[in-house]
Amino acid sequence: MEKILQLENVSKSFKGFSLKNISFSLERGYIMGFIGPNGAGKSTTIKLMMNLLKKDSGVIKIFGLDHVQHEIPIKERIGFVYDSNHFYEELTVQEMKNMVRPFYKNWAEGLFQQYVKEFNLPLKKQIKHLSKGMKMKFSLAIALSHHAELLIMDEPTSGLDPLIRHELLEILQGLMEDENKSVFFSTHITSDLDKIADYITFIDNGETVLSKTKDELLEEYCIVKGNKEQLHKIDRGVFVGINENHYGFEALSNRKMDVLRNFGDSVLIEKPTLEDIMIFSTRRNDNHVSTY
Amino acid sequence: MYQLIKKDLLMQKKTLMFALLYLIFFTFAIAKNEPIGLTIGIMIVTYMLALGSASLEEKNDSDIMLLSLPIKKKSIVLSKYLSVYIIATVVFLFNYLFYLVVHTFSIPLEILPITYVGFAGAIIAVTIFSSISFPLIFKLGYAKSRIINLVLFFGLVFLSAPVTEAINKNENLAVKQWLQKLVYESSNIEKTLVIVLPLFAILMISYKLSLTFYTKREF
Fold first, then answer.
1. CB contact (8 A) between residue A86 and residue B12
2. Beta-carbon separation of A104 and B65 below 8 A
3. From the list A73, A82, A104, which residue is nearest B64 (CB)?
4. Which of A133, A182, B51, B197 has the greatest number of CB atoms lying within 10 Å of its CB?
5. How far apart are CA A137 and CA A157, in angstroms?
6. How far is Cα A287 from Cα A272, in angstroms, rounded to an integer?
7. Is residue A211 domain-shared with residue A225, that is, in the same domain?
8. CB distance B70–A103 less than 8 Å?
9. With a cut of 0.90, is the ipTM above it?
């Protein structure tokens, strides 16, 4: 299948933070959730993809093309939504759209007007007077009005109320009916991705922890719950992270089959959420004592 | 390119009103300082608008948005330089309009005379200012380069009048003799070579520097 986005061993160093050998790829027609705690390097990775930061090493290909050599044709085919507004706040929605429009060869004015109606965007209002949700919707309307094949979203839901977040996720789901489009969606609110993501790439502290399909992930990982005595009998090597308290333990394993084979019904085995995977993996093997 | 220049002006709607007031003020307040008055008037308003757009761009962190659009960095840099000359010409035309109104209706007000020397001076001044300021802005951003820019700007503005006066008064000054010779005895080609070519060279070096800085800058 055609790889629409491909990163191979991408590295970038700053004072006090480095992104180390990030690798993942996304196929056409799918949504990739890019997760990780704050400061993990998600925005840095997106900025490297958009050539807003220069990579130290590695390869970034978008639509199979080098992202620096073919920067302009690539950006023609990308829609972007960032975590905060970068449009000119002094301009009205209409003025801003008119400024952006001529730069896209494939601009579809009818489509934009359709989104204006659907999102109730006030064309004559200055961007600074729009709510955070409206700013995101305006950004999304711009991103979706030039037949972009890849939508790059950096924490688009951060700071939004659950209703608008839900609305955005529905729009993205609707968008995926067109099998030609792909979405790269970074977030630390993993529940946003439980419903819509096909692939999950998880980074922490500048390193790729995993990059798999969501189904594979949920197939391989499990939450194990049991009492303290059971924990002593268990080989802790099967766990990615353990949370112990006075009464028992809760742990995440990435070897679900081994857990099932070794412990059977003696422990409680549950399906993890993406949040479980993120929290246990970032804690690693620090035994965390809960306070209940 | 046109869109980039247009947005620089559109996002400064409020500043444009202030600019018009400044313009009216300069037209009448420094009417006696001809032709340097016209030069200073055009330069201050042009500089105010050019730096104003850079300041708003930084406030909105808009480079991230601009550079995510399919726009060449070259177009962004070039549009900044071009906008300076467009603003300077519009400001000059406003000055000319005031002049025409005052003269046509014989309004008893002393107004800044419109001279080609004044306009040419303004073009030279904005070229020098933008040639210094833009590379700094493209390298450091507006906020970090502001102090250097302000010192340069006010330094040159406040020095320009006394320096011109000193040149006017002192007949034996070598610079004055050279200037007089250039103005009165040289052919147009010589004048062009001496003034326009070095200015153009400065502008080109400045543009190349700005483009290099902006291409290397990270956001």
1. no
2. no
3. A82
4. A182
5. 11
6. 19
7. no
8. yes
9. no
